[in-house]
Design brief:
The protein is an alpha/beta fold. A hairpin with an 8-residue loop joins strand 10 and strand 11. The strands form three sheets. It has a seven-stranded mixed sheet, sandwiched between helices. Strands 8-9 form a two-stranded antiparallel sheet. It has 20 helices and eleven strands. It has three domains: 190 residues, 3-Layer(aba) Sandwich (Rossmann fold); 254 residues, N-(1-d-carboxylethyl)-l-norvaline Dehydrogenase, domain 2; 39 residues, 6-Phosphogluconate Dehydrogenase, domain 3 (Single alpha-helices involved in coiled-coils or other helix-helix interfaces, Up-down Bundle). The chain is 52% helix and 9% strand. The termini are far apart.
């Protein structure tokens, strides 16, 4: 029988659950663990006999709950959706008023809103916390995005601050993780209270949507260098390694450089990336971001294009067949200077990245109105500086932008980002044009540029579109010489076509 002193409990001992439990124990907290398959619990405990805080195994939910100090704090790291609901339903009869359930999975924010309300009505408290950084982040320091009952988070905060990734208070740069059993000390934790009910999981979803965009944009940069200049994977890896020393400094650029320089362990001679099939998987959070943007009427085309690029990649057999029938421009060698083109692609990547993040933050700005949240965008960018997949030096610039103007409508309007895009857009446009001329698909580069051009345009062709809608559907229109909110309709079938105020 476990002793009744565990600081926190964790249910779900897949890779993420095991690593998070070890991270918590490394920081001196005793952790009770439970898995539906008791053999997995036993194997986990046997493999980790000594941790600073200690691990306590339980074979039943009842035993697990009894092992925890009050108020009980229970982390769920189980499959999102129905399995999470099933575990919660099993816990409810065993818990007492004030106990806290923390969902650390990739839950949909609307499910978190529903669960928080249902548990609150039963006297229980619920936190939906984004946990980003994959298995390595879970083990050595993730970025944590908790939302829910603020008083409940105060109970969890010492643990969350202890296990989170840390960044330097002055520079915002991540502090490197330590070895197992030696927690990172000092620095600012990459964890902060996001807001009520589903706010934490919503912000995690936006993080993942931005991640989709980042990854696709990097792939397009790689593909353009390869297609236009004919460089080998290893050479392109060296380019990315150099880029990682400047404004593009990020985890994703760093691992891309490493991936491109990796040899295939089977053939020993080919680059690993050259033997990997070009079909990408996805788990749905990018799609959630795009659907939510459509639902709220917020333009987020770059994330959507990144999702569609993965969908298109999955049509491998169709693409192979289509390649034999559909023809693009005749292949021709790029005649310009290699160094100049690589710099242009670098600039296109950075400008597209700025637009992608601008879309993500604009989406969060509208969501807080929809769900009655108050989000601190500078703090959100700060906690993404370490631990998470999109961690990058660039995020410090976003924190500084919202420090200058907390009510900033769009990142593109900040002086730093405005100046950056202004200085680099000639290269950006050159790259998008070259991609089209050479028949190289670059959907996120192109959509980001279209977003930029659309956002900076005072008068778009939507005037004609609205006239079309009024013509076939009597959907009305507003006039440039009348106040906003006054609507009119032209009686198109009538010979005189009189205008009617709606």
């Amino acid at each position: 029988m476990p002793k009744f002193h565990s600081d926190i409990g964790l249910i779900g001992l897949a890779v993420m659950g095991q690593n998070l439990a070890l991270n918590i124990a490394d920081h001196g907290f005793q952790v009770s663990v439970y898995n539906r398959t008791t053999e997995k619990t036993a194997k986990f405990l046997a493999g980790n006999p000594a941790t600073p805080g200690g691990l306590v195994g339980a074979t039943t939910l009842q035993e697990f709950v009894r092992s925890l100090t009050r108020p009980r704090r229970i982390i769920l790291l189980v499959q999102a959706g129905g399995p999470t609901d099933a575990v919660i339903d099993g816990l409810i009869p065993l818990l007492e008023q004030g106990d806290i359930i923390i969902d650390g999975g990739n839950a949909k924010w609307t499910d978190t809103i529903r669960r928080e309300k249902a548990l609150r009505e039963k006297g229980l408290r619920f936190i939906g916390s984004g946990v980003s950084g994959g298995e390595t982040g879970a083990r050595f320091g993730p970025a944590l995005m908790p939302g829910g009952d603020p008083a409940a988070y105060k109970e969890l905060e010492p643990i969350w601050n202890a296990i989170a990734a840390k960044v330097d208070a002055k520079t915002g740069r991540p502090i490197p993780g330590a070895a197992p059993g030696i927690p990172v000390s000092g620095g600012v934790p990459c964890a902060t209270y996001i807001g009520p009910d589903g706010a934490g999981h919503y912000v995690k979803m936006i993080h993942n949507g931005i991640e989709y965009g980042d990854m696709q944009m990097i792939c397009e940069a790689y593909y353009l260098i390869r297609s236009l200049l004919g460089l080998k994977a290893e050479e392109i890896g060296a380019v990315f390694a150099e880029w990682n020393k400047g404004v593009l400094d990020s985890y994703l650029i760093e691992i891309t450089a490493d991936i491109l320089q990796q040899k295939d362990p089977v053939t020993k001679s080919k680059a690993l990336v050259d033997v990997i099939l070009d079909t990408a998987g996805q788990k749905g959070t990018g799609k959630w971001t795009s659907v939510n943007a459509l639902d709220m009427g917020v333009p987020a085309p770059t994330v959507a294009e990144a999702v569609f690029a993965r969908c298109l990649s999955a049509l491998k057999e169709e693409r192979v067949a289509a390649a034999k029938i559909l023809k693009g421009p005749a292949k021709k060698k790029y005649r310009g200077a290699r160094t100049a083109l690589i710099q242009a692609i670098h600039d296109a990547l950075y400008c597209s990245k700025i637009c992608s993040y601008a879309q993500g933050f604009q989406l969060m700005r509208e969501a807080q109105k929809e769900y009655n949240w108050t989000l601190n965008f500078g703090a959100i960018a700060q906690i993404w500086r370490g631990g998470c997949i999109i961690r990058a030096g660039f995020l410090q610039k976003i924190t500084e932008a919202y420090g200058r103007n907390p009510r900033l409508a769009n990142l593109l309007l900040d002086p730093y980002f405005n100046k950056t895009v202004k200085g680099a857009q000639e290269n950006w446009r050159k790259v998008v044009a070259l991609a089209a001329q050479h028949g190289v698909a670059a959907p996120t580069f192109g959509s980001a540029l279209a977003y930029y051009d659309g956002y900076r345009t005072a008068r778009l062709p939507a005037n004609l579109l609205q006239a079309q809608r009024d013509y076939f559907g009597a959907h009305t229109y507003e006039r440039v010489d009348q106040p906003r909110g006054k609507f009119f309709h032209l009686d198109w079938p009538e010979p005189a076509r009189p205008q009617i105020q709606a």
